[in-house]
Each structure stands twice: as C-alpha cells, then as structure tokens.
C-alpha cells in the first residue's frame, strides 16, 4: 500500500522497498556466514578443538572454546488416536502450534499449507501439518476421493483428523429453526498419497526471480479482475529503478500501479500484494500505515506479503530463495498477535483464491 508524491503524506513505498530490504538482509546473512567461516578457521589454527576437526590443537586453548549452536529439533508427528480425548487434544496442539508460528521457518512452512489448504481454517491447517507434514492434497474419502476423483483408499493408511463444527437445529421463539454450533467433532480425511486411482491434475512448478519467469497468463487477468471489482484500475508503467515495484493510490484516483521493469511473474506477485492490501481493508486504514507508535505498517506488510506468497504458490510460482526472516522481529513472541494475523491472512487467501477458476489448482483442498 503505497503513496505517490501527489498523495497526502506521500510518497510511501511498500512492496518495492520491503522486498529490497529483505534482499539486503539476505546478503548481510551471507556476509556474516562468510565471516563466521573465516573466524572458525582462525580459531582452529589457534587451537580451539570445536572449530575444526582437521586441525588438532597444538596446545590447550587460553580460554574456553565458543559454544556450538544447538542443533535444530527434529519435528515430531502428532497422533490423535484416542477418540475420547481427541477434541481436547486438538485445542491443546493448535495452541502450541500457533505459539511456534513466530519464527521465519515456522511461518513460511505454515504459508505452504495455507496455499495447499486455503479453504480449511487455520486450526485445521495446523492439524494437518502436525499429523502429515508431507501432505499435499487432503479430502474426505466419500465426497472427494470416491465421488470426485474415483480413487480408493490404500489398505492400512491412517486418517488425518481435522475439526468440524457440531451443528444442531433449534427452534426460535418465532417458531422458525436456526442452526447452532454446539461443539466440535473429529473428522477423518486422507492425503492423495493414501489413495490410488486416476491421476489428479496439478499445475506445473514455475521458479521465478525479479528478473526472470513468466506467470500463468490467467493469474494477471484474475487478480486484475478482483482489483477492478473493488473499484480500482490497474496501470503498468516502468517505474524508476530505485522506486517501488508497485503501489496503490486510494481516492480520488483509485488505481494500482505495477512496474514493468521486472519479470512477468514478479509483476504478478506484486499485483497480488496490492490486491491483498485492498482486500484486507488496509486502504481504509491508511492513516495507520506508519512505523511510529501504534503504527500498523509492519503488520499490514506482513499480511500483504504473506497473502501474495500464498497466491503465488497457488498458481505454481516458486519464489526460490524467498525469506521471511522479518517475521522474527515483527512477532516479538506474541502468540495472540501471530494468531490474529494468521487468521486474517487465511481469511483473505480463502476469499481471493475462492474466486479463481478451479480447473487445475496448484494445491487442492
């Protein structure tokens, strides 16, 4: 959500300077890693045994060696075999998973699931992820696998459990009926790898960068169609190299401007980023778009960039070295903030992707 020089309070840049900052951060990491390698070699030559196995110390070190970083924990797979406690176990494990979403690795991993299972709730996405980290296409046995794809279950496969609301019909005072959620049920679903039968359609994987890559042609058309439905027009112009990659102007012009300086695929993702700002109501709250006290710019950018990532993955676009390292500093360990943002991202993705034609989805639900 950006402002041009003609806008009040402008100019403001979002997707361009944000992504450029991510690129600079990634480069800084590479420099630090190279410096670390040099330091480790120097420590090895100085006789620190933890530095390198190829250079045994000639004499005891003058001071203790640097402590090695702890190894990353191997993710554990959760099972909900006990049906008597299943619903309670759902809640506990979902809460734990949400608390862990405040790291770059966990956030990006969840976004992969949001792209694959955009019609599922945040809680169910996390439940699928913790039971079957390698799941790609999940559905119920009768409605999805048997009826829609004519596939059957492979003997011995275990169900993936998700939550579904328990709905009861109740009479209102005026005599009419209403549906009321009275609790939760455990419902079994299965991944495509648990089934056998005719092949399931898949989109091809497209790796792209800012300089190379072409998006599926319908991606631009569908994104622009939704932007137009919100009352905005789309313009494609060659913006300055040091300027934004895309920006959105609200009243009175109401337009989204996308730079033609970069690859077709990257331009499509920038278009998705701007649509996310519009869809999530950021334009109506543009006065909050700043990084000062009570400013919502960091949250808005996390939301828009996350939605754009999910949309890109839905169309088979793979950003390659995309990094979500900024999540580490943004979340600040606040699980409530993470959950609220994740739910907003999931809702926006469901709304946007739900309007796309579903002939050959990149990741199916």
Overall description:
Helices cover 41% and strands 14% of the residues. The protein is of the alpha/beta class and 365 residues long. It has helices at 15-46, 86-99, 104-116, 122-131, 141-148, 217-229, 264-279, 297-314, 326-331, 335-353; strands at residues 138-139, 152-153, 160-171, 177-191, 195-196, 206-207, 233-237, 246-249, 255-259, 317-318. The model is unreliable at 3-13, 15-35, 48-74 and 359-365 (pLDDT under 50). Helix 3 (104-116) packs across helix 8 (297-314) and helix 8 (297-314) crosses helix 10. The strands form four sheets. Strands 1-4-3 form a three-stranded antiparallel β-sheet. Strands 7-9-8 form a three-stranded mixed β-sheet, covered by helices on one side. It has a two-stranded antiparallel ribbon with strand order 2-5. It is built from ten helices and ten strands.
How many E strands?
A: 10
For the report, how would you describe the main beta sheet? 3 strands, antiparallel
Low-confidence stretches: 3-13, 15-35, 48-74, 359-365
With strands numbered from the N-terminus, the spatial order across the biggest sheet is: 1-4-3
- The general outline is globular
What's the N-to-C terminus distance? 30 Å
Please identify the oligomeric state. single chain
Our count of helices gives 10
């Amino acid at each position: 959500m950006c402002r041009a020089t003609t806008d009040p309070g402008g100019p403001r840049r979002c997707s361009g300077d944000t992504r450029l900052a991510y690129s600079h951060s990634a480069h800084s990491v590479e420099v630090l890693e190279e410096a670390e390698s040099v330091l480790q070699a120097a420590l090895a030559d100085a006789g620190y045994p933890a530095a390198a196995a190829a250079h045994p110390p000639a004499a005891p070190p003058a001071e203790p060696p640097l402590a090695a970083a702890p190894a990353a924990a191997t993710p554990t797979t959760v099972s909900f075999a006990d049906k008597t406690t299943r619903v309670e176990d759902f809640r506990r494990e979902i809460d734990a998973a949400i608390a862990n979403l405040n790291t770059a690795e966990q956030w990006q991993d969840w976004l992969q699931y949001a792209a694959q299972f955009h019609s599922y709730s945040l809680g169910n996405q996390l439940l699928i992820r913790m039971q079957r980290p390698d799941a790609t296409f999940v559905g119920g046995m009768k409605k999805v696998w048997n009826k829609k794809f004519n596939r059957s279950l492979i003997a011995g496969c275990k169900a993936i459990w998700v939550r579904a609301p328990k709905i009861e019909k109740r009479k209102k005072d005026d005599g009419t009926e209403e549906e009321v959620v009275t609790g939760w049920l455990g419902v079994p679903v299965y991944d495509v790898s648990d089934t056998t039968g005719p092949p399931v359609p898949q989109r091809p994987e497209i790796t792209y960068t800012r300089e190379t890559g072409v998006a599926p042609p319908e991606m631009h058309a569908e994104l622009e169609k939704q932007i137009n439905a919100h009352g905005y027009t789309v313009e494609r112009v060659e913006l300055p190299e040091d300027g934004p990659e895309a920006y959105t102007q609200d009243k009175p012009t109401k337009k989204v401007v996308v730079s033609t300086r970069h690859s077709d695929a990257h331009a499509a993702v920038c278009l998705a980023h701007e649509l996310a700002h519009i869809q999530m109501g950021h334009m109506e709250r543009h006065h909050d778009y700043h990084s000062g006290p009570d400013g919502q710019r960091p949250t808005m950018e996390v939301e828009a960039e996350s939605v754009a990532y999910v949309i890109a993955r839905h169309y088979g676009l793979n950003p390659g070295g995309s990094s979500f390292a900024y999540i580490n500093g943004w979340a600040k360990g606040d699980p409530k903030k993470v959950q609220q943002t994740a739910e907003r991202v999931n809702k926006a993705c469901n709304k946007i992707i739900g309007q796309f034609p579903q002939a050959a989805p990149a990741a199916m639900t």
